[in-house]
Amino acid sequence: MKLLWNPSRLNWKWQVCGFLLGGLVLGGCSSPNPIPFSDNPQPPLASAGTTAAATGMPSGGLTAARFQVGDTVTVDFSGTGGTDIIPKNVQTIAEDATITLPYIGAVHAAGLTTGELQKEIHDLYVPAYYTRLTVNVSGPQLVYYVGGEVKLPNRYQYVGPTTVTKAIQAAGDFTDFANRKKVQLIRSNGESTKVNCIKAAKDPSLDPPVYPGDQILVPRRYW
Predict the structure, then answer these.
(1) For residues 91 and 99, is the Cβ–Cβ distance under 8 A?
(2) Domain boundaries in the chain?
(3) How far is CA 217 from CA 50, 102, 186, 193, in A?
(4) Do strands 215-218 and 143-148 pair parallel, antiparallel, or not at all (unpaired)?
(5) How far is CA 175 from CA 22, 77, 148, in A?
(6) What superfamily does domain 143-218 belong to in CATH?
(7) Cα–Cα distances in angstroms (integers) from residue 101 to residues 63, 80, 132, in the given order
(8) pLDDT by 10s per residue, the chain, length 223
(9) How many Cβ atoms from other residues are within 10 Å of residue 103's Cβ?
(10) Which of 27, 66, 79, 84 is the most buried (most CB within 10 A)?
């Protein structure tokens, strides 16, 4: 059998292939939503409706820090519009979970956030005593607690993101009697997790973050 070569037919096929290939290249280079690049990428910010689970922040974390019995509370007043200005009050929350303020007496404070306590105090003064009043409530420094078999058990100021192993290092590190495999992390909302710090030192994904109000308890090792 004799094969017939048709140059015009072959040229037509090459033109079609070239057209399709060119379309694919141009389509890939002209994305309508190009992805921006950054030399210093930042994590996405959580929106106002983002849940604690979505951000990794447990209930009772930074955005939900609540006063406890024994905390120091500072209450500032302004904007009364008159000479009868209430002086600044610095008080410790009593065993009955209250602080005492001029005119209104005992105010329940333990278990409330700063915003909730501000509103509670404002609503007790206005309009019963003042037509307008600005209340500013501030609490103690944000802290976490490290106890048990560490060299410097104490409460420590929360100055930024930290983890269980880093918090233990800040507390002087483990004692010789520490059980590093069963460290207990107790969240401010009561949730408890056991952390194997030997594994966490090798794998950062096993080293959970610590938030204000959390407690880290290092148990004793028994032979």
Answers:
(1) yes
(2) 62-138, 143-218
(3) 30, 40, 8, 11
(4) parallel
(5) 68, 48, 9
(6) Outer membrane lipoprotein wza domain like (3.10.560.10)
(7) 26, 16, 17
(8) 444 445 445 455 555 455 454 544 444 444 333 333 333 333 332 322 233 333 334 443 344 468 888 888 999 998 876 556 788 899 999 999 999 999 999 999 999 988 999 999 999 999 998 988 999 998 877 889 999 999 999 999 888 899 999 999 999 999 999 999 999 999 988 999 999 999 999 999 999 999 988 999 999 998 7
(9) 10
(10) 66
Structure tokens at 195: 């952390």
How far apart CA 99 and CA 89 sit, in angstroms, is: 10
Q: What is the CATH number of domain 62-138?
A: 3.30.1950.10
pTM of this prediction? 0.46
* Amino acid identity for residue 220 in this structure: R
Task: State phi, psi for 92 to the nearest 5 degrees.
Answer: -105, 135
Strand partners, 163: 209
